[in-house]
Amino acid sequence: MKKSAYICAALLAALFLSCPAFAAAPVSMTIRPNLVAIGTGFNGTKVTVTGAVPQGTSAVIRLLGEPRNKTFKKKGKALGLLWMNLGEVEIQGVPDVFLVGTDGVSDINWEHSDLAFMSVKGDTEDWIYDEFIKLMEQDGFYEVENNVIQYTGQAEGMRSFKAELSIPSAMHQGVYRVEVLSVKDGKIADMAAEELHTKLTGLPAFLSKLAFEHSLLYGVAAVVIAILAGLFMSLVFKERGGAH
């Protein structure tokens, strides 16, 4: 009888603990604005990411663009004398944009972490991928921002946070995936994701439409604009020279 009572109690405890109402709450997130307009003079902006991760974990934010194949020229010395192109290197399936936001607490080397840029390395050779990261960082497409995540409180086993993530001026029109990772001991425990949309407006939108739908007219317009810009600059420098 006692044995049966113990078995029943164990089953009830297992059922109680497995009930969704008592399971750990999932990671939550909200991104505002979720639509960024890229118009004339766009010089980057910031988006606000808020949410919560389980207590005992840290929040990490990742923004990823669409995966693409990237082709680069491989340079070297021909016959040990002249620097020239020695072929091409292709890196497959890497996001065209990869931004990371952290709380600045961890001493993780993010450029070489499986939570960040190395997570999309694939089979690319180490030295090639290192050079790729350096190039993308120089162009502003890959970046790690530390100390952007601030924790705002704890309640019901969750740790709320707020972050201001920088959107660089180099961003183009598209759909980006924004992720909040719940990280513990350098591993992803859970995550949530939303989409961030960027849209061309004004003159950039007009020029983009012209380039895709009227390529010949766009080419002519580009030449005319370049000529006018050259004439304007020559007049400016001529006036400055005359002032002396």
Oligomerization state of this entry? single chain
**Tally of discrete structural domains:** 2
Please work out how many helical segments DSSP would assign: 4
| Radius of gyration based on Cα positions | 26 Å
Instruction: Report strand %.
Output: 35-45%
Shape: globular
Under CATH at level 1, the class of the largest domain stands as: Mainly Beta
State the end-to-end distance: 108 Å
Structural class: alpha+beta
Question: What distinguishing features does this structure have?
Answer:
single chain, alpha+beta, Immunoglobulin-like, 2 domains, six-stranded mixed β-sheet, 4 helices
Helix/strand layout:
Elements: H1 2-18, E1 28-32, E2 35-38, E3 45-54, E4 58-64, E5 67-78, E6 82-95, E7 98-101, H2 126-138, E8 142-145, E9 149-155, E10 158-167, E11 174-184, E12 187-200, H3 202-213, H4 215-243
Parallel strand pairs: 2-12, 7-8
Antiparallel strand pairs: 1-3, 3-10, 4-7, 4-11, 5-6, 9-10, 11-12
What does this structure look like?
This protein has 244 residues and is α+β, with helices and mostly antiparallel strands. The chain folds into two domains: 176 residues, Immunoglobulins (Immunoglobulin-like); 30 residues. 29% of the residues lie in helices and 42% in strands. It contains four helices and twelve strands, in the order αβββββββαβββββαα. Helix 2 links the parallel strand 7 and strand 8.
